[in-house]
Structure formats: structure tokens, C-alpha cells
Amino acid sequence: MLKLKGDTIFLRALEPGDLDFLYQLENDESIWEVSETLTPYSKFILKQYLRNSHKDIYEVKQLRLAISDYDKNLLGLVDLFDFNPKNSRAGIGIVVLEKERKRGVGKEALKLISEYSFHHLNIHQLYANIAADNTASVRLFSNMGFKKIGVKKDWNYVGGSYVDELLFQKINK
């Protein structure tokens, strides 16, 4: 049974009213290295993005969902990207607001999006690219059944030095 609702959170499509949240999150320089963002996003660009966010994953090859609690507070975002229906795979990324971390939000969101991907989109495998020094994400994905399958040496240039990136994969069996 398809379910995007968990015990404490649910995943939902982005709404026009999410503009300020999206603007705040996308312009948070502390997470730019995760998303490979180099410049700020304008509200105009984000409004256009929201206008098109309803498009089908098969058309745009990505899906972004808001992570919300049952009081309708936005806690973060989860993304499927580089969706490849021919090979039945997608990349996965997650960001949780700093004040909401260490409360199980990421774990529950990752569980819900993985189940959705495997059972609704019939994805065979999900993969995640995680900076080697991002111990919280490494722990989260490892605890959720993702296996480290590779290391990309000196992959990202961050703060004046190169950082390795780990490749994690989860295959639906």
C-alpha cells in the first residue's frame, strides 16, 4: 500500500505557499555544498519552479517533496533526481532544517520516500552522494539499508580543500 504518511511526518507536493520556506532553505549557504549551489536563488526563479513543480517525474526526471509534521510545519525537503526509468534508478537527497535534526525526521522521511520509490515508481535502486565528512548523513543512510559502494576521491572543493564523496546505494530486492 502506497503511503507518504508516517508516524510523525508526511511527505507532500510543494505548494505556492511554500515560497518563503523554499527561499530560506535554498539560500542557506551552510547547505550549498550539499546541493552544489554557487549563487543565491531569487524569489522570481523559485516562483517559476513552484509553478512547474506539478510536472510528472517521467517528464522532468525529478521529484521534490516537502517534509511536514502533522501541525503543518515544514521541516525539510526530500528529492528524487536523475530519475532514469529505463534503468529503474534515481538519486536521492534530503535536507532537514537544523532545528529539526536528531529527532528522527530524516529517518522517517527517507523510509517513506524509499518505499514510495520502490513500490509506486517501481525503482530498482536508489543512490545517494554524501560528503565523507557528513557523518550524520552517512549514519542515516547506512542505518536505512544503503550500502557504501564507492569513494570519489577529492570530488568536491569545499572551504579551500578537496573532500571525498561517498556513493551509497540501496537495491530493491
UniProtKB/TrEMBL annotation:
GO terms for molecular function, please?
acyltransferase activity, transferring groups other than amino-acyl groups
Q: Does the keyword Isomerase apply?
A: no
Regions that span the bilayer: none
Instruction: Write down the superkingdom of origin.
Output: Bacteria
Boundaries of every N-acetyltransferase domain copy:
9-169
**Keywords of the record:** Transferase
Query: Sorted alphabetically, which InterPro entries does this protein's record hold?
Result: Acyl_CoA_acyltransferase, GNAT_dom
User: What is the name of this protein?
Assistant: GNAT family N-acetyltransferase
| Organism from which the protein derives | Leptobacterium flavescens
